[in-house]
Amino acid sequence: SQQGEEDPQALSIQEGENATMNCSYKTSINNLQWYRQNSGRGLVHLILIRSNEREKHSGRLRVTLDTSKKSSSLLITASRAADTASYFCATSRRVGGGADGLTFGKGTHLIIQP
Amino acid sequence: GAGVSQSPSNKVTEKGKDVELRCDPISGHTALYWYRQSLGQGLEFLIYFQGNSAPDKSGLPSDRFSAERTGGSVSTLTIQRTQQEDSAVYLCASSLLKDTGELFFGEGSRLTVL
Q1: Domain ranges within chain A, ordered by starting residue
Q2: Among residues 53-92 of chain A, which lie with CB inside 8 Å of chain B?
Q3: d(C-alpha A7, C-alpha B88), whole Å
Q4: B46 to chain A: closest CA residue
Q5: CATH architecture of the domain with range A5-113
Q6: What is the spatial distance between Cα A48 and Cα A58, in angstroms, rounded to a whole number?
Q7: Cβ of B106 and A42 within 8 Å?
């Protein structure tokens, strides 16, 4: 079963604008990860935030985590056409992987209009 | 190679035939996952291998699906008597057994059952 749910399902913005995607989950987690998938390709890991962290940055990416609300957000600043992709959150409930080690949502499809 | 390698990249088969999909993980990665992604959907967990431990097969949708991992490295996912609903992209990922659980994905094998 899917633990994380991304919102919105699709997002279209102009190049240069900021894009925000949200992820909600149901049970306690060890960490939460965001992945990107370009059309027809595999997933690429973007950023990981642990359950005891509230905010993390990586380049133009900013991730927040609110464990009390069981939610996370991914912000991409100054978007570029190359950011067009699907973005997935994945929650890790168990150290060391396994069946529930990493559960993915259905993703947000982001389109950056040039 | 440097990344996770999957073959074939595309496979078209007739209903009722058996197919084998191969995954060559990153050298040294002890954990290996198979996921299935249907068009526009998230990732559905299928099976997980960790070292010499018994695999976690809890995600396999039916007994037509099986997987093995030889020598702790290459894995083969076999689908017997394929059905049209088996059409999907089958993604393989590997990781080091750390608390982060970051996965490295292959490009996937796209299976089309006619």
Answers
A1: 5-113
A2: 88, 90, 92
A3: 23
A4: A99
A5: Sandwich (2.60)
A6: 10
A7: yes
Alpha-carbon distances of A98 from A87, B31, B49, B53, B90, rounded to whole Å: 22, 9, 8, 11, 18
Tokens of A10: 């699709």
Domain boundaries, chain B: 5-9+16-97
Whether A33 contacts chain B with CB within 8 A: yes
Instruction: Count how many pairs of residues, chain A against chain B, have C-beta atoms within 8 Å.
Output: 69
Do the Cβ atoms of A96 and B50 come within 8 Å?
A: yes
Q: How confident is the model at residue A1 (pLDDT cuts 50, 70, 90)?
A: very low
CATH of domain B5-9+16-97: 2.60.40.10
Interchain pair A95, B50: CB under 8 A: no
Per-residue pLDDT of chain B (114 residues; tens, 9 = 90+): 589 999 999 999 999 999 999 999 999 898 899 999 998 778 898 998 888 888 888 889 999 999 999 887 999 999 999 999 999 999 999 988 654 578 999 999 999 999
